[in-house]
Amino acid sequence: MSTVTTAIDEQRLEEFMHRFVGDLGAAMSAALVVIGDRLGLYRAMGDCEPVTVATLARRTQTDERYVREWLSNQAAGGYVSYDPDRGEFFLTPEQSFALAQDGSPAFIPGAFQSASAMVKATDKVTSAFEHGHGVGWHEHDQDLYCGTERFFRPGYTANLVSSWIPALDGVQARLEAGTCVADVGCGHGASTILMAQAFPRSRFTGFDYHAPSIAHAQLAAEEAGVADRVAFEVASAKEYPRDSEGGYALVTMFDCLHDMGDPVGASAHVLDTLADDGTWMLVEPNAGDRLQDNLNPVGRVFYAASTLVCTPASRAQEVGLALGAQAGERRLREVLEAGGFTRVRRATETPFNIVLEARP
């Protein structure tokens, strides 16, 4: 193989190496965020009061020497704050909100839990690159399922009931009066349970092909006190049953259509299971229609997830269309229209998601 020698711009090289150091530190520190979350280290600092290494180790019943290294790494990365005069560490209110408060809309450890699971799939995805096969969602480390739910739940908590559903034409009133809803690709059931808590007169059924996730969702519904109006069933997006009363008033899909092997077939099945005046709410990652529109930090995250999880998951199923996590609204509209929907509009959006409303 011939090598072309070109002049190196020393300033550009230095800038690139600075980026590399930042990326390497972030990649290696991701495991430490997971460890801090699992051991309750962040939660033990959640009151924002300064602590010594010994105090934190004692609170969490962990080894002091390891805690010292962990705190030092976290302070170097800006995830923990340090007072050099007193030799104490603390979380700012903002750091606590993002790292120590599981119910906050800015909670981030779940994202790192998902990322750690994705890294564990390196060998499987490498093989997929070489041979063109897929890697099913069910083939990943179990941290992916829990981490994904914990990663997406804050966004759903902040937006689903307060802005996404109100942006749909007439849907909130129907939910308040009482109707039937199917949440397809529900995973651990976070979205289903949030809707059930907000609209007690309606009935919700969550569907997912992954049986362990459905079992987890059932337990979560019982713990949330909504099991009387929420059911969970193992079923794929092309096979979940029609509502016995003639069709669902609302079908929802949250961040999952692009993972499906046959999203057109899934769209057609949604149309078949909707009531004549029903609505499909589709929530997908917010992406531009052109690659250059997505070459930014958010796009980097989504393309990484798409390469390691979403595209392999689709390739493991029939058709294997592989939309990818950055499909863009234009491509999504094509899929919905190919499934038979004639009215599609962008109801609302966040920096991370677009919400499409589709009607027959």
List the main descriptive attributes of the protein structure presented here.
360 residues, seven-stranded mixed sheet, two-stranded antiparallel ribbon, 13 helices, globular
- The number of helical elements comes to 13
What's the total number of strands?
Answer: 9
**CATH topology call of the largest domain:** Rossmann fold
Name of the CATH class of the largest domain:
Alpha Beta
**In this structure, how is the largest beta sheet organized?**
7 strands, mixed
- Domain unit count: 2
Name the helix and strand elements from N-terminus to C-terminus, one letter apiece: HHHEEHHHHHEHEHEEHEHHEE
Which stretches of 5+ consecutive residues score pLDDT under 50? none
How far is it from the N-terminal to the C-terminal residue, by CA? 56 Å
Overall geometry comes to: globular
Average of the residue pLDDT scores: 96
Oligomer: single chain
What is the helix fraction of residues, given as a range? 40-55%
Name the CATH architecture of the largest domain.
3-Layer(aba) Sandwich
Description:
The protein is of the alpha/beta class. The protein has helices spanning 10-38, 53-60, 64-77, 93-99, 109-120, 122-131, 143-164, 171-177, 190-198, 211-224, 263-273, 297-315, 329-338, and strands at 81-83, 88-90, 180-184, 203-208, 230-234, 248-254, 274-285, 343-349, 353-359. The protein folds into two domains: 17-100, Arc Repressor Mutant, subunit A; 159-291 and 318-359, Rossmann fold, CATH 3.40.50. It has 13 helices and nine strands. It has a seven-stranded mixed beta sheet, sandwiched between helices. A two-stranded antiparallel sheet has the order 1-2. A hairpin with a 4-residue loop joins β1 and β2. The mean pLDDT is 96.
